[in-house]
Design a protein that fits this description.
three-stranded antiparallel sheet, about 60% helix, elongated
Length: about 475
């Protein structure tokens, strides 16, 4: 018996231990999951906060950059004001004016970014406002319905409560003695019993009335709590909606203000560019150091660059080139004329040994780099008299001939082959007065390809020479030799 009892006790203890262990593990698992969920939520909140901070920092940085530019502009305007009228046709004044143009361009870029950010914010807020308005309508409808039910319940309570108050008043007036007298004055036992039953019925009715009063009171309290919650939700949604709308209006006003600022700056920019071009033309004529006007239309420049990029992207390796058929064909079709071997270099650094494109004219009116207004100058300019000889800087195949009344004007592009690194080498010759070669024609190093001029965006006759390696424009200076 003892053994059976012991075994039974051990079994019970083991069961209890297992139950406790399971409960503990379950609690631990739940706690771990909760911690993970809390950590995940915390990380999400942190990421959102960091994203918000980064956007605020970016906006602050733009504002700081704008303030810095405004400071530089004021200093620049003081410098420009210090020049005498007869000292304006000088490199110093024109450079200072171009520097001002560069600052205005930078300001316009910043304003464009700020406008874009404000528009993005307006779109974001507008996307949030629509569902908030919808949510508010639902909450207001729910609140109105709950309020109507509450008012109805309140009216019912008032009726019951008033009836109960009247009953209490009647009981107070009649008093306990009145009830006792009614019993004692009974004529007989039957009347006594009848009056007792009546009193009991009235008492039960009073109890039920009190119960109804209490029940209605509890309903009112419950409904009042629910109504308060709905009212709080409506007020919160309305407050959030109003805040979003105010922020949206603020951003829209910011956009309008910045757009007006952009319009004003563009007028100033246009005036300064016109003055710069006029003074630069006078200065170039006086010094005979002709180059390009520095304020060319950006869209025109972009369209020319895109066309050239498309041409360069289609160039094949020298050993893949086939016979040319006619002018202005795809560069894939260009060959080397009489001898493919002599037309293009293939894997040789000899291709990098260029001769000057305007023999006898080595003065440089504009180096490779950037103008003071921030715009790039992607080649070297060699001023010369109109009609001067323009030659191929290295042997190759003419891959483009173009005649424009803007940008490069009349220009030629020649493909020379590849260097030891396998990079494709191309040269460009711009602003010619006449072109003496055609697309697909093979040319030798030093062979005349055009006559110098001042077509396109040019202050006077000069050769704008570019070197392009694997599609990227580089400084030709270190590759030129006489």
């Amino acid at each position: 018996m003892k053994t059976k009892a012991s075994k039974k006790l051990i079994a019970i203890l083991l069961s209890l231990l297992l139950m406790l262990s399971s409960a503990g593990l379950s609690a631990y698992a739940n706690e771990t999951t909760t911690l993970k969920d809390e950590k995940s939520t915390t990380e999400q909140i942190t990421e959102k906060e960091e994203d918000k901070v980064s956007k605020e920092e970016a906006q602050q940085t733009l504002e700081e950059q704008k303030k810095d530019l405004e400071k530089k502009l004021k200093e620049n305007e003081k410098l420009l004001a210090s020049f005498e009228e007869d000292a304006k046709v000088t490199a110093q004044y024109i450079d200072a004016l171009d520097e001002k143009i560069g600052y205005i361009n930078e300001e316009l870029n910043i304003l464009d970014k700020q406008i874009a950010e404000a528009k993005s914010k307006v779109d974001e807020l507008s996307a949030q406002i629509a569902p908030l308005e919808k949510q508010l309508k639902v909450l207001e409808k729910e609140y109105d319905k709950a309020k109507e039910e509450f008012d109805k319940l309140s009216d019912e309570f008032d009726k019951i409560y008033n009836a109960y108050c009247l009953r209490l008043r009647a009981m107070y007036i009649s008093g306990r003695s009145g009830i006792l007298a009614a019993l004692l004055t009974s004529k007989d036992l039957s009347q006594f019993i009848t009056r007792i039953e009546m009193i009991r019925a009235v008492s039960r009715a009073d109890a039920q009335l009190l119960k109804k009063v209490n029940a209605k009171m509890e309903q009112i309290i419950t409904r009042q709590d629910g109504l308060n919650e709905k009212k709080a939700a409506v007020l919160k949604a309305r407050s959030e909606l109003d805040e979003k709308k105010k922020e949206c209006v603020k951003q829209q006003k910011s956009i309008e203000s910045k757009q007006q600022e952009v319009a004003s700056k563009k007028v100033s920019l246009s005036e300064n560019r016109a003055q710069s071009d006029s003074l630069f033309a006078q200065y170039s004529a006086k010094t005979q150091m002709y180059t390009e006007f520095r304020n060319e239309d950006e869209e025109l420049v972009k369209s020319v660059d895109n066309e050239i990029d498309a041409l360069l992207s289609g160039l094949k390796a020298p050993d893949e080139v086939t016979t040319a058929k006619s002018a202005e064909h795809n560069p894939d079709d260009y060959n080397g004329g009489d001898s493919d071997e002599n037309s293009l270099y293939s894997g040789s650094n000899a291709v990098l040994n260029l001769t000057y494109p305007a023999p006898g004219h080595y003065a440089v009116s504009q180096e490779y780099g950037h103008y003071r207004n921030g715009r790039p100058h992607t080649g070297i300019d060699f001023p010369y008299p109109t009609g001067s000889k323009v030659v191929a800087a290295q042997k190759g195949i003419v891959i483009k001939v173009k005649r424009l009344n803007y940008s490069y004007g009349y220009y030629i592009m020649i493909y020379h082959g590849t260097d030891a690194k396998g990079r494709k080498i191309v040269t460009l010759y711009a602003h010619n007065s006449s072109i003496l070669v055609s697309v697909g024609q093979s040319v030798k190093k030093g062979e005349q390809i055009a006559k110098g001029g001042s077509t396109g965006n040019s202050t006077g006759p000069h050769c704008h020479f570019e070197m392009i390696i694997d599609g990227a424009k580089v400084n030709p200076k270190n590759y030129l030799s006489r």
